[in-house]
Amino acid sequence: MSPDRFAPYAELAAFLLPALGSDSSDGSHDLTHIHRVWRNAATIAATEPAADTELLLAAVLLHDCVSVEKSSPLRSRASRLSAEKAREIVAPLGWDAGRIDGLAHAIATHSFSAGL
Fold it and tell me: Of the N and C termini of the chain, which has fewer Cβ atoms inside 10 Å?
């Protein structure tokens, strides 16, 4: 999927997309899913004046960066595992600790099964 589909944050998308690996066999978590979530998130962000849309895109792109099988005993921790990995992935961007915490929070709490 072209990073251009995530305009105006194509450069950020180009940096983050390779971190997702190449496992797109799960139709519910493939790149089409990510783009659909991005379109929805961008629509919501447009109505929220205080939204950090760049951070939101990073959360969208990385919310499933750790793949956990549905039958795994770790399934309820999948979003927290993705949040921790996302911290490592965005480290080269030079974001401050508060922004990285916000990213991790958005990812960890997006999942209903996490119970957060």
Answer: C
Among the listed residues 47, 56, 55, 58, the one whose alpha carbon sits nearest the alpha carbon of residue 19: 58
| Positions of E strands within 1-116 | none
pLDDT tens per residue across span 61-82: 998 888 777 777 777 678 899 9
* Calpha distance 7→87 (Å, rounded): 23
Q: Is the pTM of this model over 0.85?
A: no
Contact 78, 111 (CB under 8 A): yes
CA distance 85 to 63: 10
| CB neighbour list of residue 94: distance below 8 Å, 6 or more residues apart | none
What is d(CA 113, CA 116) in angstroms, rounded to the nearest whole number? Answer: 8
